[in-house]
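Q: Fold this one first, please.
A: Sequence and structure below.
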Amino acid sequence: NYFDFKKCIQVVFEANPSTLSREKLKLLKKYKVSRLNMGVQSFDDKLMKKWGRLSSESSVYKAYERALRIGIKHINFDIMCGLPGQTLKSFEETMKKVIKLSPDVVHVNPFFPNPATCFSQQGKVLSQGEMQKREEMNALGRKMLLDSSYKFLQFEDMGKSNEARNIQIADTVEYNSPFLGLGIAAMSHISGWGNYMNLPDLEKYKRGIRQNESPVYLQCRYKNKIEELRWYVINSLRYNLLPKKRIYQLFGQNIDKVLKEEIDYLVKRGKIIAR
C-alpha cells in the first residue's frame, strides 16, 4: 500500500520570453518543469523598450511556439495594465493577441509601483487619471478573457482548467502550506517559521552556491501565531474571498477578534465586506 503523488507534483519555472532558447526549454522539459510562467507584460515593443524590458512581440511568439513543441504541459502569461505611457488601445491589442495564442492561464496584473521599482525610486507617483485608466484596462482585460474561453479559477486568475493552476499558491492559500523557491529573488515560505527571499543579484547568487553559502538575502521570522495569521491574510486578499472558518481551522483564532480594528477600518471605507 502506498500514496501516489505523481499527479500532485508541479515544477514551476518563471522566465522572460527573450531568454527561452530551444536548449533552455529542452533542459526545463528534462527536469520535469510542468508549468512555465512567461513574463510577457505587453506586445507593445515601444512600451517594453521604454521600461527596459528585454522581451519583444517576436520573442514571445518564438518562446511560446518552442515551449508547445517541446511539450511543456501548462503555460501562463503575465500581462501588465496601467503602465505609464500605456494606452487603452495598446492594451486591447495585447489582449487580442494573448487570446489568439490561447495560453492555459492569463494573469492581468495592475501596475502598483512598490518602493523597490525604478518608478518609485525616481520620486514618481501615479496620477488620479493614470489610476483610473489602469482600472479601465484591468476591467477590459477580464471581460475580454471571460468572453473567450477563460474563466475564473480558484486561488488563481483567469484560466481554462483547474489543472493549469499554480498548485503551490493554491495550497498556500487553502492550507498555509510551505513552498520552496529556487533561483535569484525567489520567495520561500515555511509554515510556523517565516518566509525568506533569495539574493536578487545573479553573480552573487551563483558565487554563493559554488562556495556552499546560503543564498538567503532577506528573511522574516514570525514572532507568534498571530503574526503568521496577519501574513496569511495579507497574502490571501488578492483572491477576493477569505472564509473566517478557514482562518479558525488553520490558526485556532477568531479573525473578528484578532483583527477587529483593521476589519472595522476597511469596512467603514468600503474596501471589504464582512459577513
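Q: Good. Now the second chain.
A: Here it is, same layout.
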Amino acid sequence: MISEVSVIEKQYINSNSVMAFKSFTDALHMHIESALEKGSRSLVFVCIGTDRSTGDSLGPLIGHKIAGIKNKGVYVYGTLEKPVHAKNLSLVMEQIAVDCDNPFVIAIDACLGSMEHIGYVGIGPGPVKPGAGVRKELPAVGDMFVTGVVNYGGYMDFLILQNTRLHTVMKIADLIATGIRFVIWKLERSK
C-alpha cells in the first residue's frame, strides 16, 4: 500500500490574481506550521535589501511593515531604518544565532525574472541566495524563502534594479506583509 506524504514544494503566486492573498497565506501557514511541529521555537523574518535602490527595497519595505509584530518568538531583521544588505548580512546571521532559540528563518528578498513573471511571489523551502541577480557572492540565507519578482533580468541587472517601478515593489510588499501579519495572527489564535 502506498501512503500519502505531504511534500511542501515551491509555489509562484501572481500578486495581481484575485486569489493571491489566499494562495500566499495558505502556503506560508503550511511552511510555518510544519516548522513549528518539527520543534522550531522562534520565527525569524530576514528582510534583505536596501532602500537605496527601488528594485532592491522590497525586503526593507516588508520589514518596515511587519516590524510592529510583538508576538513572543517572532523576530524581524531588515527594515527601512536598519536594512540587512551585502555588507552586514553575515553579522546579522551571527546575531540571529545568538538571539533566537532554535529559529526557523524566513528569508525575504527581491529578485529579477522574466518579463511575464514580474509581480509574482515565490515561496518555498530552502534558502535564498541574496545578490545572485547582480552577481554578488553572498551566503545562502533561510530555512525557507519568499521572493518577489520586481523586474526582468539578464542584462545590466544593477541598472534594472535602479529603474524598477515603485508601484510594482509596493504591490508585492503589501501582499507579503499583510499575509505575514495574517498568518502570525492565525497561528496565535490557534494556540
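Q: Anything worth noting on the second one?
A: The chain has five helices and six strands.
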